[in-house]
Amino acid sequence: MYQAVLECKKGSVYYWYTNIDFTKRTVFLLHGLTANHAMFGKQIDFLSGEYNVIVWDAPAHGKSRPYSNFSYEDAVVVMLQILNKLQIKQVVLIGQSMGGYIAQSFISRYPEMVIGFVSIDSTPFGNYYSKSDIWWLKQIEWMCKPFSEKMLKISMAKQNAVTKAGRENMLEMVSDYEKAELCHLMGIGYAGFLDDNKELQIHCPLLLLVGEKDNTGKVKQYNKEWSKRTGIEITWIPNAAHNSNVDNPDFVNKCIGEFLANL
Predict the structure, then answer these.
(1) pLDDT at residue number 135
(2) CB distance 219 to 128 below 8 Å
(3) Beta pairing class for 2-8 and 234-237
(4) Distance of alpha carbon 211 from alpha carbon 235, whole angstroms
């Protein structure tokens, strides 16, 4: 893949892309909170060749640091600039966790550009969240602070993955963060979602993927309600937790491949 960097007022954003063939569909892979593009290694291998693939380190993540005052609106602006630079008019968005929020934020602003959305262990935009849910999401930053840096990172790896490969991948992705930065990023990641959350009708094809062992927050509960309201059946990923595309990449890739083939 080719590496590129987009210079923004708030910081530099790194992204990678395969050779662009305008006869092929384009897929943009959007990683989760505190992660980076390395979580999509197996998906890049699977999709490259048949599809144009774009992946990034989202603003304030991975190599795209330092980046001041992360917001989902900013992330959407950067996404649009990347797509414009690559002359991509329509795209399939594949978002894991926070990446699903960024995807929905993009869809809410540029629905005509999105021809498909794959949500991996993410949750929906809309009035799904109770007052207590919102209150707890706003407490994430200070709730992380009592942990030592080592214990925080280990607990994140155990929470997000059930396989050895999945936990090692998560530990590697968070290894470059110092504790204060990690806590702050989680705080602004969830608070920023609440700021950008709105009622959203998704008119493009939607695939809901959720790890059977995903015990992060109320992800399962929110997805069941999302499925109920949209009529779209959840595909449960066996032997997988929150980072289900890393825990069980073969199953996830099969689901994504079938979804893309049927667009």
Answers:
(1) 87
(2) no
(3) unpaired
(4) 9
